[in-house]
Amino acid sequence: MTSEFELIRNHFVRPTPQAILGPGDDCALIAPALGMQLAITTDMLIAGTHFLPDTDPCQLGWKTLAVNLSDLAAMGARPRWALLAGSLPEVSEPWIAAFTDGLFACASYYGVDIIGGDTTRGPLAFCLTAIGEVPIGMALRRDQALLDDDLWVSGQPGLAALGLAHLQGRTVLAEPLLKPCLAALQRPLARVELGLELRRRGLAHAAIDVSDGLLADLGHILQGSAVAAELFVAQLPPLPTTADPVLARQCQLAGGDDYELVFSAAPEKRAEITALADHLALPLWRCGLVVGAAPGQLTLLDDQGRVVPINEKGYDHFG
Ligand SMILES: Nc1ncnc2c1ncn2[C@@H]1O[C@H](COP(=O)(O)OP(=O)(O)O)[C@@H](O)[C@H]1O
Ligand SMILES: Cc1ncc(C[n+]2csc(CCOP(=O)(O)OP(=O)(O)O)c2C)c(N)n1
Ligand SMILES: [Mg+2]
């Protein structure tokens, strides 16, 4: 029988070169580098709500960290530390070992030390707190979009929600589309380099990551910045041609779980942003404009300039 402390020692504790004091005492001790401030964020992943209970534990470990690093990415912060609280229904050591393999693979990919946490018995759930650094006063925020800014989105939002629809039997995806959709859902990437470069190169005014859906999260920028926007359907990333087009559009606009970044930028920065996309080998789509209508208002327009009704709503745990 493995005790709580053996479990922690055997699976959750690895070297933490970036901490003054790592796991083992009542608190970890960390200090930001000179001239930096801390960015801190937390998100839960609950079985049945955020992931299917039979999800591969290695991918789940990766995702638990990656979705939190996505919030740091959206603020242009460099991820450095994380704490993991886990509630586990029973001690299955192979399951835990696979989970921590994925978790630490993600941690080493993004240069993060796991500096502490908590381990209890209970329904399968995780809560991760990620801490990053950003030069004082330089974080990208939701509330800084300006009139006449372009709106940009990275990558291909919608794939994760299509993957979930497939796993839930709401659609059938065939290869070669299935693989990237399942990867987007189960092993998402946090757009850390994109956030860092947008901040370092001074390219973005406002940014957010897409966890609840493109329209919903863009809505947070609009509300926060007290501006309105027009989004051009024809300039969004092309939909995968082999998926049901109605479902694919729905997933793109409101699926969530994408962890792409949406950002606003001055039109003079177009060439520099295109160069950044090449540098990162990550498509960046200029798909909208900040306009001066009622704060928070989002209008979707087709290629003829006609208004497209919005029926989609983003992911809302209580909506
Ligand atoms: N229970 C809570 N107590 C305090 N702040 C919260 C709570 N839940 C959410 N928030 C804050 O509300 C904001 C929006 O939360 P959320 O939609 O989860 O953001 P995100 O998509 O970036 O994870 C965040 O700043 C978050 O810290
Ligand atoms: C079993 C299952 N059901 C539904 C989803 C879809 N889903 C769950 S939570 C969520 C939105 C993001 O989660 P949230 O807790 O709102 O994260 P935050 O916005 O705080 O980052 C989505 C799209 C999923 N991934 N798995
Ligand atoms: Mg959250």
From TrEMBL:
SUPFAM superfamilies (alphabetical): PurM C-terminal domain-like, PurM N-terminal domain-like
Pathway: Cofactor biosynthesis; thiamine diphosphate biosynthesis; thiamine diphosphate from thiamine phosphate: step 1/1
Positions with a binding annotation for Mg(2+) 2: 43, 71
InterPro entries assigned to the protein according to its UniProt record, in alphabetical order: PurM-like_C_dom, PurM-like_C_sf, PurM-like_N, PurM-like_N_sf, ThiL-like
Keyword Ribonucleoprotein tagged: no
Catalysis performed (reactions): thiamine phosphate + ATP = thiamine diphosphate + ADP
EC nos: 2.7.4.16
Annotated GO MF terms: ATP binding; magnesium ion binding; thiamine-phosphate kinase activity
Protein origin, superkingdom: Bacteria
UniProt binding sites for Mg(2+) 5: 212
Ligand binding (Mg(2+) 3): 26, 71, 209
Residues binding Mg(2+) 4, per UniProt: 26, 41, 71
Domain PurM-like N-terminal, chain residue ranges per copy: 24-134
Function (record text): Catalyzes the ATP-dependent phosphorylation of thiamine-monophosphate (TMP) to form thiamine-pyrophosphate (TPP), the active form of vitamin B1.
Family membership noted in the UniProt record: Belongs to the thiamine-monophosphate kinase family.
Note: Reaction mechanism of ThiL seems to utilize a direct, inline transfer of the gamma-phosphate of ATP to TMP rather than a phosphorylated enzyme intermediate.
Protein name according to UniProt: Thiamine-monophosphate kinase
Organism: Candidatus Accumulibacter phosphatis
Highest classification ranks of the organism: Bacteria, Pseudomonadati, Pseudomonadota, Betaproteobacteria, Candidatus Accumulibacter
Gene field: thiL
